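#lab-general

N.A. 3:47 PM
ok so I finally got the sequence cleaned up, no stray characters, all 124 residues accounted for. can someone with queue access submit it? mine expired

B.Y. 3:52 PM
send it over

N.A. 3:53 PM
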Amino acid sequence: MKSILALVAIVSHLAAGAQGGSTRVPVDDVRILLISAIDSPTGQAQGVLTGQMANLITDRFKAAGPILIDVTTERRYRQPGCSRLKLTFSQDGVNLPGASGPERKTVDIGLNYCRDGTPPKSLS
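B.Y. 4:20 PM
back already:
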């Protein structure tokens, strides 16, 4: 029940942000943003990764900034609640071995995803 209430609060917060400008929602589970992007009329959701995973990544790379997540719908499939999503993770102040200093790093991932967590049955 707690999880459902948290999801409702976050989706409501995302909807309010979509009406009044861009808002980054703190999430420790990226799936919340995937579902929000699928449900959003604009096909987008933005968040900032929190929790143990964010701490591990930030500590590992001695990074200076939060881990930002942008989810964009690239294509909506015929199967209801299923889309092709682009996830962009970015963080400032990342220190990589051999680099001259801290820098902004970005990773893009493409994902076929449905609201129920499964891949689409068809890509049409």
